[in-house]
Amino acid sequence: MSRFNLYIFDLDGTILDSKEDIAIAVNYGLKKVGLKERDTQEIVRFVGYGAKKLIDDLLPEFNEDIRKEVLGYFREFYTQNPVIKSTLYPGVEDILKNLKNSGKKVSIVTNKYEEISKRIIEHFKIDRYIDLVVGADTTSEKKPNPKPVFYTLEKLEEDKEKSILIGDSETDIQTSKNASISGCLVLHGYGNKELALKLNPDFIIKDFYEFEVIR
Questions:
Q1: Distance of alpha carbon 126 from its chain centroid, rounded?
Q2: From CA 12, how far away is CA 112, in angstroms rounded?
Q3: Is 10 a catalytic residue?
Q4: How many Å apart are CA 158 and CA 50, to the nearest integer?
Q5: Would you say the pTM of this structure is higher than 0.90?
Q6: Which domains does the chain have, with CATH numbers?
Q7: Does 215 have pLDDT greater than 80?
Q8: Coil, helix or strand for 104?
C-alpha cells in the first residue's frame, strides 16, 4: 500500500528544466538597460525564490531602480516566451501518468506565477495529470512559507501525514519542514544541494528513475 496520497511537485529544476529560458529572459532584461549579459550557470544559482529575488541576488551592486527595470523587462519577455528551450526532466511524464492512474492526487507548488505555470504545463500536455497549480501569486505568501502547501492540502482535502513535497532546492525542503509534511530532495536541477541536505530531507533521489522509493 502506498504511503502517500498527495504528491506536491516543485516546477523549475524539479519537473521542468527551464534554466535556458530563464537565462534568456534575464539577459534580455540586462541588455535592455545596457548591462553585460551573464552566464546561464551564474543566473540559475539564484532560481527558486521568485523573479524579484533572482534579479536582486544577481545584481546586488546596482540600485533598486535598475533592478526594478531589469525585472520588468525579464517579466515582459518571459511572459511571452516561457518555453523556447525548456524541457521536462526524463521520466517526469511517466511518473505523473502513473500517479494519476493509481488514483493519487498531484499538485504543483511553485514560486513562479500561477498563470504562466499553467501555460507551461499545458504546453507539455501534462495538465491532464495535475489536480492543482499553486503559484507565487495564488496565496498571500510563497515558499518557503508553508501557506501554499496548506492551501493545497485544503483544496485537495488531504492530510499532512499522507502528503509529500518533491523539489530540487533548500527552498522546497524548508517548505516541507515548515508545513510538517514529508520532503524529498531531487538531486538534479539547480537548487543549492549543500543547503538542502543540511535540512535532512526525508527522502533523497538522484532523478525520477528512483521515484519508486517514495511510492
A1: 15
A2: 8
A3: yes
A4: 26
A5: yes
A6: 6-17+86-214 (3.40.50.1000), 19-80 (1.10.150.240)
A7: no
A8: coil
